[in-house]
Amino acid sequence: MKSWLTTTDHKRIGLLYFWTAFAFFLIGGLEALIIRAQLVRPEGIGVSAETFNQLFTMHGTTMVFLALMPLSAAFFNFIIPLQIGARDVAFPRLNAFSYWVFLLGGLFLNASFVAGPLFGAGQLSVAPDAGWFGYANLTSRQFSPGPNVDFWLLGLQILGIASLAAGFNFVVTILNMRAPGMRMLRLPPFTWMTLITQFLVITAFPVITVALVLLMFDRFFGTHFFLPSGGGDPILWQHLFWMFGHPEVYILILPAMGIVSEVLPTFSRKPLFGYTVVVYSGVVIAFLGWSVWAHHMFASGLGPIADSVFAGTTMLIAIPTGVKIFNWIGTLWGGQIRFTTALLFAVGFIAMFIIGGLSGVTHASAPTDLQQTDTYYVVAHIHYVLFGGTILGLFAGMYYWWPKMTGRLLSERLGKVHFWLTLIGMNLAFFPMHLSGLLGMPRRIYTYSPDLGVAGFNLVSTIGAFLVGIATLVFFWNLLRTRWQPVNAPANPWNGATLEWAIPSPPPVYNFTVIPTVANRLPLWQTERHGPMAPLPERPPAPIHVPGGSWWPMITAVGLPIMAIGALSHFLPVVLAGAVVAIVGIYGWAFEPFEM
Amino acid sequence: MAHDTHAATHHHTSMGLDSRKMAFWAFIGSECLLFGSLISTYLVYKGRSLVGPYPHEILNIPFTSFSTFDLLMSSLAMVLALAAVQRGDMKQGKLWLLVTALLGLVFLGGQFWEFSHFVHEGLGLTTNLFGSTFYVLTGTHGAHVTIGVIWLLTLWVQALRGKLGPANAMTVEITGLYWHFVDVVWIVIFTVVYLIQ
Asked: What is the distance in angstroms between the Cα of B63 and the nearest Cα belonging to chain A?
């Protein structure tokens, strides 16, 4: 127990990230199912409008910040040091700090579901209820007098710190901790996409931090940053949020693209088609990702010039994305394909992401977008890219790397049940939303009239959502089964080409007995140009120093939610107490002898 | 800020750059976006205050020029501190670390005086958009200076205890990076807020 609380081992932190994020994924999924149950027929009466607002806000916030990002982080943590041939990340204690901050931030946000009585709210739940992008001036004290929005803005600030700390850590790890011979253009594509993602994290998160701080000043100290009554402009919130929010979209999708770029070559027995182009497309996507934010705001009336520019940049971004899709198809083309579950999910990713990408291109046109804004068409789009894209990609990664992470093989039979249920379920759930949206069903309404003519589509959506729920339980069962009925995994069960497959499953604490010297991009494969690298010795020839654990990252992390609780209850001594805890933690951390 | 007894042992890194230093450059890049967003907010709301006091009525350029000069001199002191630590002259090193911190404190004192003077003149945090954007922007900068001063004093105490030497020059160098960055940000704020009204 203590060894897990103080761990600085990237593999353990990766597993902690995985299980925590998976738990939040189940919570976010449960929220989605309640939403779908409410909408199963017109004039549903299951939950109140207020509860419904909380459900869709927490569903979006949870899935983006507590499920998808940290599930990607689970793979960053576990896989990146292995892929680059390192013994750990550059800053192991900072890595532990990121995890604890993420966990505590997530618990803080979700505590709002039961914190009502503490605030005399007259109801149990005071969960955030202003939508996951918290538009001004819905979030003002005037329209949201309770602590709901405070939970949201404080929780997201805490989570931002976790992401930023991990961002600095992985940028340095990937650039600076590579094994000898691991040149930048020999990095596995997943590592490349992670590097690009982390650059987006460290540039995008400060912007939302500023937005949240300004909102905090509006709510706590009476400023008017986003309030027209004092000359402020609610549109500024939209600019700041989407300046973060659109890079965030790529923060969510690029890791999944990296996973797919690992899975397809392995199971096609072919190198990634156009590796360099895939890498550079990722870089171009990230750059363009910074120049498209206002396409979320066409309905706010930016004027024809701004609309045209942002429509243009948005359509441009389809080019590098399309390039990648052709590269993936090119990888499959003529390969010796093995239809494992991981491959099925990767192929599913390509197909679903194409649908989501196409509906995204329709948003790029400002006149069309005006018809779609705030309808279920947008909901369909976001779920095709984030579920059909990111989640299918992450599932591919789970089936691919689970044997490496735990030393146990997942059941392929259950995996295929999981895949087909998920694929059918998600299309039943999300495809009809295009139609209900185009027919005029607004998003975020807790009930609708039978006269709208969308009852049938909503029924199908709900059936699909519950199929996805069942599929996820099958997956959960598959995970648990590896504990109860273990099937041990060999070091390289899939015949992968990259360094993580050169070491046992699960890897020993020091990862590599000897740091390998890398001579090419596919070190474990026999190709026409080179043979596989020599196997590493089974035992380390010399003793390897493994850094011990540390309490300080967790202690420092604990200070942050204490400060947030103080802010939430408008009680300065608690804020100061939290600050003292964090400062003690930082000093303990700084002066602790910790040998790398 | 890590006091690493093994800092002298140079670890091999792929880019040949110390990992902590690289992380700090990444951090500074991130901070640019933070201050960039705050400065943009200031500029967007410039001239949109509904009531006074307005910037030209209240900003005192000669006084703030002095503060700016003080902060620039602290960067000079920081350079001298790092040079002294690198060549192992801890007597000078201690002196210049302390001078850097004290010049930082003088800047903070000036900011404190400026804020209380403005409040006295009727410009509070919530008075108008100018007050809100001004206090949040310069206050965030002031918080960075405060952290820098605490950091410098921590190093100074370490030096007094004989625990800071040429082996920890990288720690001092990183402190310097932070300090110079905060200084550069102030030059931008001084230009945008005070000089171009």
From this structure: 27
Establish if B172 belongs to a structural domain. yes
Residue A596 has a pLDDT of: 56
How far does B21 lie from chain A, in Å, by closest CA?
9
Task: Supply the range of the domain harboring residue B125.
Answer: 65-195
Chain B residues touching chain A at CB-CB below 8 Å: 1-6, 11, 13-15, 17, 19, 22-23, 26-27, 29-31, 33-34, 37-38, 41, 44-45, 48-50, 125-126, 128-129, 132-133, 136, 154
What confidence tier does B6 reach under pLDDT thresholds 50, 70, 90? very low
Buried b (16+ CB within 10 A) or exposed e, A323-336: bbbebbebbbeebe
C-alpha dist (Å) from residue A132 to A149, A378, A488, B16: 10, 14, 42, 42
Query: pLDDT by residue (tens digit) across A243-291?
Result: 999 999 999 999 999 999 999 999 999 999 999 999 999 999 999 999 9
Q: What is the ipTM of this complex?
A: 0.94
The CA distance from A322 to A328, in Å, is 10
Q: How many domains does chain B have?
A: 1
Between positions 191 and 250 of A, the ones with CB within 8 A of B are: 202-207, 209-211, 213-214, 217, 221-225, 230-233, 236, 240, 243
What's the CATH code of the domain at B95? Answer: 1.20.120.80
Indicate whether B2 pLDDT > 90.
no
**From the CA of A531, how many Å to the nearest CA of chain B?**
25
Partners of B44 on chain A (C-beta within 8 Å) are 233, 236
Q: Which helix (H) or strand (E) element contains residue A354?
A: helix A341-364
d(CA B140, CA B116): 16
Is the pTM here over 0.90, yes or no? yes
Residue B177 lies in a domain: yes
Which DSSP state fits A386? I
pLDDT greater than 60 at residue B7: no
Q: Measure Cα distances from A526 to A181, A275, A495, A533 in Å.
A: 18, 18, 11, 9
Q: Is B176 among the domain residues?
A: yes
B143 in a domain, yes or no?
yes
- The band of B11, judged by pLDDT with boundaries at 50, 70 and 90, is low
Render pLDDT for B59-93 as a digit per residue (tens, 0 to 9): 999 999 999 999 999 999 999 999 999 999 999 99
A25 to chain B, closest Cα gap in Å:
29
Give yes or no for a contact between A388 and A355, defined as CB atoms under 8 angstroms apart. Answer: yes
- Most B CBs within 10 A among A80, A170, A176, A591, hence the mutation to make, goes to A176
By C-alpha distance, the chain A residue nearest B16 is A176
